[in-house]
Each structure stands twice: as C-alpha cells, then as structure tokens.
Design a protein that fits this description.
Pnp Oxidase, Chain A; alpha+beta; 19% helix; 3 helices; globular
Length: 170
C-alpha cells in the first residue's frame, strides 16, 4: 500500500480563488512517470549545485544514481538534504513537483536489484545495471544509488494556479 501524506494543504497565498489542492495520487504519478529530474544538493560552502538526471519511483521513494567522484556525491556526503524536481516546463498547464528530503546511499544488493529492475523497465536496456558490492555497475562503471524519501513535496498547479503542500512523517 502506498504511503500517504499526513498533511495536505492548499496554500491560499499562492493559489487562485476556487483552486483545490492537487491529490497526492497525481503528484506520485508524475514522480513515477517523468523522464527527467533536476537534483539540487548543497556544496561544502553552502552554495547550491543543480544537475539533471534520471530517477525512478519505487517503494514510496525516489531513487537516483551517480558516479562516486561526481560533485553531487561529494555534496551528499557532507549534507544529505536535497531537492528533486520535475515538471512540464509549460506556463499555463501542468503540475510541477518539488520533493524535499534527505538522500541516503543504498548499499543492500537485494534492494539495489529491485531498483535496477525498475530502471530497466522505465528507461529500457540502455539503463541496465548489474548489482554487486553495494553499487550498480553498467555503462559508466561503478555507480552509487541514493534513496530519497519525501518529507515535504510541493505541487505547483498551473491550470488553476495553485500550490499544494504534501507533508510526510519522517
């Protein structure tokens, strides 16, 4: 059974009169179906670092991967707080999603195996990974996997101009 938010709020300050809160089922669907995401992490000096990546929704969490020497991995080793975003890049339609939480490295080979299957099913054989020693191994060598459980998720509805906030238990 899917994890549901404990609080759903329509922020009237940033919503048109008569707007309604977007259902979490729609936010979750967009997180699962999007092809491209933007991850923002914090550099050691506090400056933000944003990069595009692919990711998958599985077991009520977003999973993304990165090479061990990449900037985002270095950032996450010092501060696990991050934001993952996706949306439609249209001004007057769609729902943009901003997910806030803490990214945790996944090293359990059984969990990694399940996540690797979700990647392959979503992105095709191009994103086929072998799992060993707590990491993915594929087209670019060793890749570390992170799980990002939502703490707070914002949905910016552009059809009726609305801002929904979904909050989850830690």
């Amino acid at each position: 059974m899917a994890k549901e938010p404990f609080d759903v709020e329509l922020d009237l300050r940033f919503s048109r009169e008569g707007a309604s809160a977007a259902p979490w089922s729609e936010g979750r669907r967009l997180l699962a179906e999007a092809e491209l995401y933007w991850l923002t992490t914090l550099r050691p000096d506090g400056r933000p670092h944003t990069t595009p990546l692919v990711a998958v929704w599985h077991a009520d969490r977003m999973y993304f991967c990165s090479g061990p020497g990449e900037r985002k991995v270095g950032n996450l080793s010092g501060d696990s707080r991050c934001i993952l975003m996706t949306g439609c890049n249209r001004l007057r339609s769609g729902l943009d999603i901003v997910l806030e939480g803490d990214a945790v490295r996944v090293t359990d080979d059984a969990e990694l195996g399940r996540v690797a299957e979700v990647y392959r099913a979503k992105y095709s054989e191009e994103w086929h990974f072998k799992v060993r020693d707590g990491a993915f191994h594929g087209m670019v060598g060793e890749t570390w996997v992170y799980a990002l459980a939502p703490v707070t998720v914002f949905g910016f509805g552009k059809d009726e101009f609305s801002q929904t906030r979904w909050r989850f238990a830690a």
